[in-house]
């Protein structure tokens, strides 16, 4: 019996043990595209771009409006909404993917931690660059930007150390969680300080505006009658 060609054998193998997910990309490469790399690479790259497009449309139509409404209902500042609601929405897929990679006896701890580091690098490099190209020019508060970048580097350095050691202890896991709590508290404290400064600087302007408005008020009819009466009294006395 003649042996099956490589493409047929690979197709049968990936169909016998399909990867979890909605679309079996290995089957697309081995079966549909006959394992032709010159054809598979452009097609799979196009599928990847379509996935990014779907994510952008879904986020713009559902995720961003929901976060905006929650932030307005909870009266959260943009910074607090970013470090809580947006961070939860963006980090939830990474958290579940890393948990799935670390779970079980056949887990891949390095792959799970590397996925987190890779996601952070992707967001810091590609997403920031793409957003800057699309939405520029825009102003960034120096204090908030420095705070976020510095604390992100601290967290990434700690995670990189854990990745190199290939083990994580209980105190390290608790420390990472407490570090995030500290970060949220620092953002909240800085927002309170900024709001207090804005209110204190606005009070003199409001007072000056009220005084100028009182001086510029039109004279009423009663005031005009009183002025005429006083003028007539002065003339009659003379």
TrEMBL record:
Gene Ontology MF term list: antiporter activity; monoatomic cation transmembrane transporter activity
Q: Entry's InterPro entries?
A: CaCA_antiporter (IPR051359), NaCa_Exmemb (IPR004837), NCX_ion-bd_dom_sf (IPR044880)
For the keyword Transmembrane, the answer is yes
Specify where it is mainly localized. Answer: membrane
Residue ranges of the TM segments: 40-62, 74-92, 112-136, 148-164, 170-190
Query: Topology versus the membrane, per the UniProt entry?
Result: Multi-pass membrane protein
Localized where?
A: Membrane
- Show the GO cellular component annotation of the record: membrane
Gene3D superfamilies tied to this protein:
NCX, central ion-binding region (1.20.1420.30)
> Which keywords describe this protein according to UniProt?
Antiport, Ion transport, Membrane, Sodium, Sodium transport, Transmembrane, Transmembrane helix, Transport
Task: Report any one BP term from Gene Ontology.
Answer: sodium ion transport
Tell me where in this chain the Sodium/calcium exchanger membrane region domain is found: 45-188
Q: Which family does it belong to?
A: Belongs to the Ca(2+):cation antiporter (CaCA) (TC 2.A.19) family. Cation/calcium exchanger (CCX) subfamily.
Q: What is this protein called?
A: Sodium/calcium exchanger membrane region domain-containing protein
């Amino acid at each position: 019996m003649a042996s099956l060609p490589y493409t047929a054998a690979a197709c049968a193998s990936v169909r016998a043990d399909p990867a979890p997910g909605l679309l079996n990309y290995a089957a697309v490469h081995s079966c549909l595209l006959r394992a032709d790399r010159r054809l598979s690479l452009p097609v799979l790259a196009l599928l990847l771009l379509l996935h990014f497009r779907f994510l952008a449309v879904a986020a713009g139509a559902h995720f961003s409006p929901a976060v905006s409404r929650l932030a307005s209902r909870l009266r959260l500042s943009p910074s607090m909404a970013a470090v809580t609601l947006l961070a939860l929405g963006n980090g939830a897929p990474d958290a579940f993917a890393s948990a799935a990679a670390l779970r079980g006896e056949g887990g891949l701890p390095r792959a799970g931690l590397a996925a987190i580091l890779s996601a952070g690098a992707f967001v810091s490099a590609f997403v920031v660059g793409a957003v800057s190209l699309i939405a520029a020019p825009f102003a960034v508060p120096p204090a908030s930007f420095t705070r976020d970048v510095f604390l992100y580097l601290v967290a990434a350095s700690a995670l990189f150390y854990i990745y190199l050691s290939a083990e994580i202890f209980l105190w390290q896991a608790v420390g990472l969680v407490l570090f995030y709590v500290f970060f949220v508290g620092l953002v909240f404290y800085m927002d309170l300080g900024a709001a207090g400064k804005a209110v204190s600087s606005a009070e003199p302007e409001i007072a000056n505006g009220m005084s100028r408005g009182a001086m510029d008020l039109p004279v009423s009819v009663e005031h005009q009658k009183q002025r005429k009466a006083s003028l007539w009294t002065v003339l009659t006395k003379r």
